[in-house]
Amino acid sequence: MPPDHQPRLDLAALHADTQLVHGGTTRSSFGEMSEALFLTQGFAYDTMEAAEARFDGSDPGFIYSRFSNPTVAMFEQRMAMLEGAEAARATASGMAAVTAALMGQVRAGDHVVAAKALFGSCRYVVEDLLPRFGVESTLVDGTDLAQWRAAARPNTKTFLLESPTNPTLEIIDVEAVADIAHRAGATLVVDNVLATPMHQKPLRLGADCVVYSATKHIDGQGRCLGGVILGSASFINDNIHNLLRQTGPALSPFNAWVLLKGLETLGLRVERQARTAARLADALARLPGISRVLYPGRPDHPQHALAQRQMASGGTMIAFEVEGGKAGAFAFGNRLRLVRISNNLGDAKSIVTHPATTTHQRLTLEARSELGITPGLLRLSVGLEHAEDLISDFTQAARG
Ligand SMILES: *Cc1c(COP(=O)(O)O)cnc(C)c1O
After folding, report:
1. Which residues line ligand 1 (CB under 6 A)?
2. What is the predicted pLDDT for the residue at 362?
3. Are residues 144 and 166 in the same domain?
C-alpha cells in the first residue's frame, strides 16, 4: 500500500456499490480497516509557524471541527463520489442543508421560485423565513412547466424542488425545470431525499445543487440526524463554504461516522426497499377499502413515463387513500401490527404516516387539498421487513 493507505484504484470510475464501501476513506497511521471516528474539536500544531500556515491556507490541514473534521470529510467525499459532484459539505440536519443551500445564494432584493409540494419545513423557509430578509418567493405547481416559466423574474436567483414529492409522490421533470432555471439566469436546487442517491442523479439532469437529509435512507436505521449539500466546486465555494464555517450548522463527527457506516449498506437497503415497495403497492391496490395507490413505479401513476425516464426505480415510498376519510385512515393505521406509526422515512422499519394531521398539519386546509393531501391519505415508508409479512399486515388491516 502507499504510505497513506489509500486504494490504488480510481474509485470515481467504479460502481456506486464499490464507492459506498471504499469512497473517501482516509486511514490514520494505524491503517485501521473501519473508518476512524475523530471525536475531536481541535487539532494541535507542532510549531507556531505550522499554525500560521494552516490559517493562511498554505498547509491545507484541519483547524477546527466547525470548519472540517477528518470523519466528516470522509462522509463528504464518499457522498461527492456517489453523487458525481465536485464538492460536498455536510450539515447537522437536512434542514440545515436546505436552509444553507438557499440562504447562501440570495440577498435582499432577490427572488426564489419553489414547487408547492415541499417538505413542511422547507416550505417554511421559502414562504416565511426568506421574506423576512427581503427575499420574495413564488410557489408553483411543480408539475406544470408553464408555471415555472411564468414565475421567473430578472431577480430570480434559484429554483427549489423535491421529486418525488412528499407525501403525494408527484414527479417533477428535473431536466426541464433546470433548463427553465438556466434560461432565466437562475440555479436549480433539488431536494433528492425521497428518490435517494441510488435512484436519481439530479446533477446529471442539469441541477446545480443537490441536498439530502441524511437522516433518512443514508443513515437508514433511524439513529441520527444529518444533511449534505452537493454541487460544483464553484457552487460550494461561492455560496456555501463560508456560510457554513461562520454560522456553524456543523455535522458532529460521531454522526458522520454513523452515516459513513450507513452508506456502506445504502445500495443494498434501497434496492430491497424499492423491490418490496413495488410488490406492496400492487398488493395494496387489490385490497378492499383502499381507493387509490400512488406509486411512481406503477403504470397507473399519473407521471409513470417521466418517473421511468428520470428514476432508476419506483422508489421506497407509497401513498394511498383509505375510504372513509380521516376516521377510515386512523382506523386502518391503528389496525397495523407490524408497521409502526411515525413521521420519519427511509428507516429499516416500515413507517406509516397520516400527513394531514402530522407532517402537513401546519398547512391550511386549502393548501393541503391543493397538494392532494386528503383526510384519507396515508404515506408509507417501506422498510426491510419481508414483503410477505408486510402484505399480511396490510391485508389484515384492510379486512378490519
Ligand atoms: C426529512 C426531510 C428534510 C429535513 O431533514 P432533517 O434531517 O429532518 O432536518 C428535508 N426534505 C425532505 C424531503 C425530507 O424528507
Report:
1. 93-95, 98, 119, 121-122, 162, 166, 191, 193-194, 213, 215-216, 225, 227
2. 87
3. yes
